[in-house]
Design goal:
Blueprint: E1 2-5, E2 14-17, E3 28-37, H1 40-46, E4 64-68, E5 74-78, E6 92-96, E7 100-102, H2 109-129, E8 137-141, H3 146-157, E9 162-167, H4 170-173, E10 183-186, E11 198-201, H5 205-217, E12 226-230, H6 243-247, E13 251-255, H7 263-278, E14 286-290, H8 294-300, E15 307-311
Helix pairs in contact: 2-3, 2-7
Length: about 300
């Protein structure tokens, strides 16, 4: 079969032949891949830089996909990349049926492949990592990125009374009120987010240290808990957190991702996420590209607003 294959972590995947998959486990199923999203998580996987990387090559990247099983059912599936070097960017792959969900009839495979992963980052963080309840206020750092835009919509879907969307790009910030943002601001205007209950942080790095100081020093009641959800690190892998930020306010810093969230929790949330996508609850930006063009899009579309979806 054909697949996107990584043979060198410093090079993009190449479209080439790869051995046909074989199911070995009790719940494993060989499936036909219909659409696989090119997420930032996949880029770091293919570059060997993700914290779950085993360093094993060759590697077919891809952490999720919309697939067709042998009974003709269309599924969204998550791959446990800790246990295999065969991801989803191939004509066929192996899935654990227990880590998949059957999709509703007439759902668009490309839209689902584009939307579930970025929606899941904020959805699972709010549902599984903090005690979030309807009516609370949420700020999103990095709201102009693909996952950040989705987080605005997810927070509203889950009952946030107010969403503050913060980012660098003023033009992209201007688009977010239509998606549910009640307040938009640049990263030097975060005093406007001072009294939120939850921060969803896609930035980390140097901007997070500054943002914490700005938000906490302008907080009306520092005794009211603020949950800071670290879900991304597009601005850098390390953040300098002032000691005073931890001592002078009731701040809870929580990470959300593979490891801190059990796999079963991701799977349990899938049906509701897929239901929301199928209902058209989210504005999804997706661009379908043939799998054979993986090398071209890998090097030319990083940072694009559309989520690239590879279609075998």
């Amino acid at each position: 079969m054909k697949a996107a294959v990584v043979t060198d972590f410093s090079q993009p995947p190449h479209y080439q032949d790869f051995p046909d998959p074989v199911a070995s486990g009790e719940d494993e199923v060989v499936v036909e891949v219909l659409a696989a999203g090119l997420h930032p998580r996949v880029r770091s996987q293919a570059g060997g830089s993700h914290y779950t990387s085993t360093g094993e090559l060759p590697l077919v990247p891809g952490v999720d996909a919309v697939v067709r099983d042998r009974q003709g059912k269309i599924r969204y599936a998550i791959i446990d990349v800790d246990e295999t070097t065969l991801g989803t960017m191939a004509e066929r792959t192996v899935i654990d049926a227990g880590r998949s969900v059957v999709l509703p009839a007439k759902v668009d495979p490309v839209e689902v492949a584009a939307a579930v992963n970025p929606a899941m980052s904020s959805w699972v963080a709010l549902r599984r990592r903090v005690d979030f309840s309807r009516g609370q206020r949420v700020a999103i750092l990095g709201a102009t990125g693909n996952a950040g835009r989705m987080a605005v919509q997810v927070a509203k879907r889950l009952g946030a009374s107010e969403v503050v969307a913060a980012g660098r790009d003023a033009a992209k910030l201007a688009e977010l009120p239509a998606l549910g943002a009640d307040v938009t601001c640049t990263l030097d205007q975060l005093a406007q987010a001072a009294d939120v209950d939850v921060v969803i942080d896609y930035l980390w790095g140097e901007p997070t240290g500054r943002a914490m100081v700005e938000i906490l020093t302008n907080r009306a009641d520092r005794g009211k808990q603020l949950a800071w959800l670290e879900v991304g690190a597009i601005a850098g892998p390390q953040a300098s957190i002032p000691a005073a930020a931890l001592r002078s306010a009731r701040l809870q810093i929580v990470g959300s991702g593979i490891g801190s969230v059990p796999g079963r929790d991701f799977v349990e949330e899938l049906p509701k996420i897929v239901e929301a996508i199928a209902e058209g609850a989210f504005d999804v930006r997706a661009k379908a590209v043939p799998l054979s063009e993986v090398e071209r899009v890998w090097t030319s579309t990083a940072g694009t607003s559309d989520r690239i979806v590879l279609v075998p």
